[in-house]
Amino acid sequence: MTTVRLPLFPLNSVLFPGLVLPLNVFEERYRAMMRELLKVPDDEQRQFAVVAIRDGREVAPSAPGLPDQTSQPEQGPAAGFGDDPLKAFHEVGCVADAATIREREDGGFEVLATGTTRVRLLSVDASGPYLVGELETLDEQPGEEAGALAEGVLRAFRSYQKRLAGARERSLSTSAELPDEPSVVSYLVAAAAVLDTPTKQELLEAPDTAARLRAELKLLRAETAIIRNLPSLPATELTRGTTSLN
């Protein structure tokens, strides 16, 4: 078992390998993380781990709240994640490689990172200015019939895109413009489909590529059928992703 220690960046969303993650960093705990990452030499990877939040708040409260308006908000690296941060996060996350970390005049940061490798969260250290996790790296196994499944998922994804966006067939990307490597297909579709965070987390945790593709094929067919039968659904709005506040 190969383990690493990396800063943790919890989000209300799931990061997949190969996908780009823009971040607007303004909380002090994450500012401290970025300042530390900037100390890493330019020729080395500036990495942190993204984990989806199971129970907690992505942004810690900064003012007294309900029901007691006099209560003071939590402070520190684990603010918003309870007494045991390990229980607040999903077990499987993704390492992010920060290609760009740009500090703003207000002290915040604009970060552009890319997901690289799946990891399993083993423990959380909250003793420093930001959370640090001990993580086990997870290999991606192809599974059985991954290639054929990838082809089926791409066809289903095209039909899903067409229904979701209301586009004409000729306006969709050609097969040459989409990846054909099964694991890349599985992560791209998982990230692009309009699914809730628990469902995306299940796809990230799939035991192998083939299992993820099988699950996606089932989901895409079901979602396409739902959209087909709900013509009043404002599908074009669903395609617009949001950037995390952090």
From TrEMBL:
A GO MF term: peptidase activity
Alphabetical GO biological process terms: proteolysis
InterPro entries: Lon_prtase_N, Lon_prtase_N_sf, PUA-like_sf
Span list, region Disordered: 59-83
Domain Lon N-terminal: from-to ranges: 6-224
Keywords, alphabetical: Hydrolase, Protease
Entries under PANTHER family matching the protein: ATP-DEPENDENT PROTEASE LA (LON) DOMAIN PROTEIN (PTHR46732:SF8)
Name listed for the protein in its UniProt record: ATP-dependent protease
Species for this entry: Streptomyces alboflavus
